[in-house]
TrEMBL record:
<keyword id="KW-0732">Signal</keyword>
<protein>
    <submittedName>
        <fullName>OmpL47-type beta-barrel domain-containing protein</fullName>
    </submittedName>
</protein>
<dbReference type="InterPro" id="IPR008969">
    <property type="entry name" value="CarboxyPept-like_regulatory"/>
</dbReference>
<dbReference type="InterPro" id="IPR058094">
    <property type="entry name" value="Ig-like_OmpL47-like"/>
</dbReference>
<feature type="signal peptide">
    <location>
        <begin position="1"/>
        <end position="34"/>
    </location>
</feature>
Length: 676
């Protein structure tokens, strides 16, 4: 081991010197911190809505738990218009509390000495201390008692957070903001610990309440309940123990005590508890008498006069009795009272309860649906009717309704349902318990659930030749809301047509057609009707069209004569040839050419279709016969076609097919006009 030759004594002093140097260095560091690192305490105070609160005075204090006292204020500040504050505080104390008052409530919060910011927003919902304080023995509410919510820091040290005063019913309700230190409610903070309301104690010793109090007795030494004690313009009605109490300030020392059936007492207040004795006395007896019995069920339904009659068995002198009172104000159980005073000044009281209801009930009718679901105020479905009656006084006794203009009235027992169609006129009214009858009200409910009836007169469901015209005609019937012509329409093959207009059938295609008529009634019920008919052509129809087109100026007389002659021969080939030759407007207009060729080809096409059908099903047995028939049809030689069919019947054409072809041919060759 290396021996440096340093004595133990020297080593000891070296260690001490090193420790002193370290402490000096630490002290210097703390001093630098105190001088250079003491930022202000800053923050913002806002209300429950986040709005800045200006002018709040804040202070930081510290509590010495050992000595049970505050060490002093270490910093103060006041919030600006933005609710902001900045405070320089002494940070050498550890147990700091920041305190300020907002809206009359003390706020106390613990804050660490190193904190540099503190914000506070008033809670949206405050804590609340509530309760009722009564007087012991007197068993009466204790008004005017100061109640405080405190935060106790030590047994004998506390901060008052908020305070209030009990109302006339001894009730208190005090909002406060809780602290971290805990809090409880006390009354009259200068009272001993027994005043702590958190123990469930809700009474104040009457002897320590500061009240003037006493008891009222009868001359037989019984406590007197219900005696009226008057002092300084205030009244107190004695409780079951005959007790009474008045709280400061007392503006008068003259006390009066009265009770029905006892002589009154007047005097000057004495020491507490004051004992007052009321001797039994004979007061005038007063009776309040209405002029008549109630009109119905204990209620009057018009003004009533109340008379007061009085007598006094102990006094023969005339009594001073209150005059009659006319009750005009409506209300239930109104106490109408009167007095009678004898010669000694004793006053007796009498009263009667009057219930007066002069107002009739009100009934409201509500319909379901609320508004008509149809047009023009009509309903298209069943309607529910609910009658709701109200009466602010005696109450509704009954509601009734009539569906026959008041001849018969039925009791209303619940929602009514109207199902039948028509306009229903309902009257209704209600009667209250006082027998006031409401003026009759009425309501009309029109119901129409049936759409108009449509009957198409023309066209009929039949076949029409194209040489004729049809007129659209129909009838509309609706016995309730009526036909709405603005919503009535007719369409022929989807195209709008007007009632009564004539439509030339040659302008329509050959075959099936449909007329549809749609109509609505005033309520909005919609119905439709349709008829289907067919148009056809034959030689007779062609003859009629030639005549019609000639009259229209579409065919010259010369050309018409030639065309008619070819039709009479049944030579459709020549007819078609001459019409086509006139296609350029020589003797026949383009419109006439279009319709004549269409009908001529339709006649031939129908026979060709029939021949092909019978050929396929072997009703025409020989192909050569079918070929001859088709050749004759393609040439338009109808007479030759008819001869061939007749000749081959029962040979190469079955009798059934031949008959069908000839019948078809006879139909096409039929002479004359009219529908087939």
């Amino acid at each position: 081991m290396l021996n440096l030759g340093i004595s133990k004594s020297f080593s000891k002093w070296a260690v001490i010197l090193l420790m002193l140097a370290a402490m000096l260095s630490l002290s210097t560091a703390n001093l630098v911190f105190a001088e250079e690192e003491n930022p202000p305490l800053q923050g913002t105070i806002t209300d429950e809505n986040g709005q800045a609160i200006q002018g709040v005075e804040l202070e930081v204090n510290s509590f010495n738990a050992t000595e049970g006292q505050w060490d002093g204020i270490h910093g103060t500040a006041v919030t600006d218009e933005n609710g902001h504050y900045s405070m320089v505080m002494d940070r050498s104390y550890y147990n700091n509390a920041i305190m300020f008052t907002v809206k009359g409530i003390k706020v106390v919060r613990y804050i660490h000495y190193s904190e540099t910011s503190f914000d506070f927003q008033i809670p949206a919902v405050l804590e609340r201390a509530e309760g009722t304080i009564t007087l012991e023995d007197i068993e009466a509410p204790a008004p005017g008692v100061t109640v405080q919510v405190i935060s106790r820091l030590k047994t004998s040290k506390y901060i008052t957070l908020a305070s209030g005063i009990t109302d006339e019913n001894g009730h208190y309700s005090i909002p406060y903001i809780a602290t971290e230190y805990g809090q409880f409610t006390t009354f009259n903070a200068n009272l001993p610990e027994g005043g702590n309301l958190t123990d469930g104690k809700t009474t104040v010793p009457v002897a320590t309440s500061g009240a003037f109090y006493g008891y009222v007795y009868t001359d037989s030494n019984d406590t007197l309940f219900g005696a009226v004690v008057e002092l300084g313009g205030k009244q107190f009605v004695t409780n079951a123990s005959g007790g009474f109490a008045f709280f400061p300030p007392l503006t008068d020392d003259h006390i009066k005590v009265s009770a029905y059936g006892y002589l009154p007492f007047e005097g000057t207040i004495g020491s507490v508890p004051m004992k007052i004795v009321l001797p039994v006395s004979s007061y005038p007896t007063v009776e309040a008498i209405p002029e008549r019995e109630p009109d119905a069920n204990g209620w009057y339904n018009h003004d009533v006069l109340v008379e007061f009659k009085a007598e006094d068995a102990d006094d023969s002198q005339p009594l001073v009795v209150d005059p009659h009172k006319l009750v005009q104000t409506e209300g239930a159980n109104q106490i109408i009272s009167g007095t009678a005073t004898d010669s000694t000044g004793l006053t007796g009281y009498g009263e009667v309860s009057i219930s007066l209801d002069k107002t009739s009930p009100t009934t409201v009718a509500a319909l379901t649906p609320v508004t008509p679901d149809g047009g023009s105020g009509w309903y298209k479905q069943s309607v529910g009717i609910q009658l709701t009656a109200s009466d602010g006084l005696s109450g509704v006794a009954s509601t009734e309704y009539s569906m026959d203009d008041g001849s018969t009235w039925l009791p209303y027992a619940g929602t009514l349902s109207l199902d039948t169609e028509g306009t229903h006129h309902m009257k209704y009214r209600s009667t209250d318990t006082a027998d006031n009858v409401e003026s009759v009200k009425s309501i009309s409910i029109p119901i129409d659930r049936t759409a108009p009836v449509i009957q198409i007169i023309s066209p009929q469901e039949t076949d029409y030749n194209v040489a004729s015209d049809i007129k659209v005609r129909y009838t509309l019937t609706d016995h309730l809301s009526g036909v709405d012509l603005s919503r009535t329409s007719a369409k022929l093959d989807g195209q709008a047509v007007k009632y009564g207009d004539a439509t030339p059938l040659y302008t329509m295609t050959l075959g099936q057609h449909t007329l549809t008529v749609t109509s609505s009634d005033g309520a909005g019920n919609v119905s439709s009707a349709a008829v289907t008919f067919r148009t056809y052509t034959n030689l007779t129809t062609l003859e009629a069209l030639v005549t019609r087109f000639t009259n229209n100026g579409w065919i010259t007389a010369k050309t018409a004569k030639s065309l008619q002659k070819q039709l009479e021969k049944g030579d459709l080939g020549a007819f078609i040839h001459e019409v086509e030759k006139s296609r350029n407007g020589k003797g026949v207009t383009k419109e006439a050419v279009q319709y004549l060729l269409r009908d001529a080809h339709s006649i031939l096409d129908s026979l060709i279709l029939l021949v092909n059908q019978y050929t396929q099903d072997q009703s025409i047995k020989r192909a050569s016969v079918a070929k001859d028939l088709l050749r004759e049809l393609n040439k338009g030689e109808l007479k030759d076609f008819a001869r061939t069919v007749d000749k081959q019947s029962d040979k190469h054409i079955t009798a059934h097919a031949a008959k069908s072809l000839l019948v078809g041919l006879e139909h096409l060759l039929k002479k004359g006009n009219g529908n087939e």
